[in-house]
Amino acid sequence: MIIRRFFFLPLLFIPLHALAVELPGIPQFIDEMVSKHQFKREELVQVFQHAQRHQAVIDAISKSATLKPWTEYRDAFVNPQRITVGLQFWQLYAEPLQRAEQQYGVPQEIIVALIGVETRYGLNAGRYITLDALTTLAFDYPRRADFFRSELEQYLLLAREQKFDLLSVQSSYAGALGIPQFMPGSYRKYAVDFDGDGKIDLLHDPVDAIGSVANYLKQYGWLNGEPVSVRAGVSEDNCVGSLAQAHSVAEWKEAGVKPGKEVAADQTARLVDFTVADGKEFWLAFNNFDVITRYNNSDFYAMSVYQLGEALRDARQVMSGMHP
Length: 324
Hints:
Layout: H1 26-37, H2 41-50, H3 55-62, H4 70-75, H5 80-92, H6 94-104, H7 108-119, E1 128-129, H8 130-140, H9 145-162, E2 170-171, H10 184-190, H11 206-219, E3 229-234, E4 247-248, H12 249-254, E5 257-259, E6 268-276, E7 279-285, H13 287-293, H14 299-319
Antiparallel strand pairs: 1-2, 3-5, 3-7, 4-6, 6-7
Helix pairs in contact: 1-2, 5-7, 5-14, 6-11, 7-11, 7-14, 8-9, 9-10, 13-14
């Protein structure tokens, strides 16, 4: 039986016609990995002889989830089931979540909510072979080929460091890995060994995932104690379109935008809107909201994380006999 691990798969057993994916650019990519990172050419040849192109990957990434209406998008993430499982996750990992908040300044509910939105707390971390997904996108998705080629490079480096089995590790269709869905480059740059066991493991270790999410947000500029988003009222005569850029809260108030709760006048925010059943909701989105979009560049995404976090925090307070 052939062992499907690229470091050990003998060339002897691979027929010459076994190249499973023939996409322009792979030979040049192999050349670059050999010269730049001192990979063994024979091992990379073996790797790409087993990589598969998947049309389903192209189809999935070509469809934007935010084409859904806001209420439908939100309900997929902020719902009773995800709140219930999130409370269980929070209870189970209360100590590392508290420690992550203290160390990085990111509220526990934001960490839990982000993991909840990404993978339902690790229950759905992806079903595509990462090598296949990244190879498909790097060499057959011209719109973002450079990005995915870079992530494929980072993945091969990560696999070498972590001793991954390249032919079995699974991810999202975009190649995002593990419980927090880090792209390979982010895994190498921002993941941390938060349980101190000498290994960084985002594929199986929720504690490492918790610390890594907090570190990621902190590194992208999360500000401890600052707001994420605040519901706002907008006067009917306000010309929102001319004020689409970030302004101070004081300037927004002068323009007829009233925050739903008290916020420092010098705080800077964007005004964002979401279509709901009875019209539009307006929100002021602060620095920390934009930091969440560095995880996924979508206001829908960031607001879902924020609102799930608020729902989790309120439910946990009620469970603890406190008032939200």
